[in-house]
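Q: For a teaching session next week I want to show students how multiple molecules come together into a single three-dimensional assembly. I've collected the sequence lines for a complex. Could you give me the predicted structure tokens for the whole thing so I can convert them for display?
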Amino acid sequence: MKQSRLFMPTLREVPADAEAVSHQLLVRGGFMRQNAAGIYSYLPLGHRVLQKIQTIIREEMNQAGAQELLMPAIQPAELWEETGRWGIYGPELMRLTDRHDRRFALGATHEELITSIVRDELNSYKKLPVNLYQIQTKYRDERRPRFGLLRGREFLMKDSYSFHATQDDLDEEYKNMYRAYSNIFDRIGLKYRPVVADSGAIGGKDTHEFQALAEIGEDTIVYTDTSNYAANIEMAETLDRYDMQAAEILALDKVDTKDNKTIEDVARFLNIDTKTTIKSVLFNVDGETVMAIVRGDHEANDVKVKNALGGLDIQMEDEATIIDLFGCEPGTLGPIQAPVKVVADYAVKYLVDAVCGANEANTHYKHVNAERDLSHLTYHDLRFVVEGDMAPDESGPVRFARGIEVGQVFKLGTRYSEAMGATFLNEEGRAEPLIMGCYGIGVSRTLSAVIEQHHDDRGIVWPKSVAPFDVHLIAINTKDEAQLELANRLYAELSSTYDVLYDDRKERAGVKFADADLIGLPIRINVGKKANEGIVEVKVRATGEVLETTVDELPRVIT
Ligand code: ATP
Ligand code: MG
Ligand code: MG
Ligand code: MG
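A: Of course. Below is the structure for the complete assembly, covering every listed component.
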């Protein structure tokens, strides 16, 4: 591609509204333009990167046995009503009405739509399993679209859905997808961690997010260096839902809720002193001893817990802050203590609230319970989630990092198939709901995440696998005939092997170099003064390494 022909409107100035580095560089480098809040056009350079990312995703998904299809973005409201999500999804779901007053949703996700497609077709165990995926534009009216492509309202997602006859089969596919996702993000060149995550209101239990490590990330992840275990700190919230159930069991069992109990009553029962600092509480549930640590009086604690989980902003690996926040003794931070304690703070809060009357928390409690049937959960679930797949005797310090959720794998179970009557006949000829998994990757978000991790103060530093072009060939002075001739020749020759961007513009060298640094192609070839000797300069964007080479040696040098 000749740069003189390429639509690549670069900017020298940092766009005023762009907070995130990736957002700034995408606009400055002419990769994209904003059309409305959270809505963007991908210009040719940005589009090329998206294509590269999509190719990697397609290759790995196909390799893993999934099949590509394409579903509509416009979905009938009735499907969303079948699962109740027309109501539950809230204002994030964009809705529209056609000329006949029929209601539609703009697809925020496609569980309902895919289930409606397969429910009449995947009607026998013999046709299972099946994994179907698409790469498609999604719509979510995010409350706060921001950071460019990181949180858009129209964005590109790869979403896949798998259907199974048995839970074991789903478990296998989950592992299969987990591996495929690891391959994808490895190939894209992201530093990431799969973390245990919150299964939210969708139901189901097992879920991992793939978190690209970056300061701008909106998620906080908790991990240790000495174990494989890592979790989204949101897990604490999930656990609080588990806790609520446990708390209720405890409360109903031991405290007479018919009487108007006061905080003091509950506190007395729990052996908590509400007037002075509460240090620790031991719960005994189902024979298990679970420790909770609570600080301050209950009102202050309320605020603190809310702040802690809502606006938690812990400095990375700042042990002093963690110690302060969680009230642990220095040196006693084990791998699970901090998450347990956040959870337990909540447990106490809900225990107290649940027994003492209807306040906001209690409403929340009922709300969550109405949405999710928690009756099958026991305290073992809590312990399982907290401890995850950690080695128990390893006890490195807890570390915190910021992450960008670039993907998520999820065991849905029968939440959708049951609601939508998607059944198959099992080997005994009995009808059963399909067992489902779903797996998403934020394609456009991933593009930004790559830049968050790969840039310097001059611009983007693309990993080879997703760079918009492989090689940036620069004719430094197009008025010099020897230079122009050699550059033209190299352009023709290299183009058979590489995607070459050829800067043939009549611009000053300084302008060309600044643009080249900004858009960050992995290899730059400068054709300059030594062109008449057949010598060019090769510059590696990532390392800054520069070397001269003869044209004959060039193919070997740049491989
Ligand atoms: P988040 O927690 O960031 O809001 P999510 O959990 O709501 O994301 P999923 O429903 O899991 O998102 O969707 C699958 C993937 O789509 C996410 O892992 C993420 O990479 C991407 N994604 C979700 N929302 C957006 C968005 N507003 N803009 C860009 N990508 C998004
Ligand atoms: Mg979301
Ligand atoms: Mg999320
Ligand atoms: Mg998610």
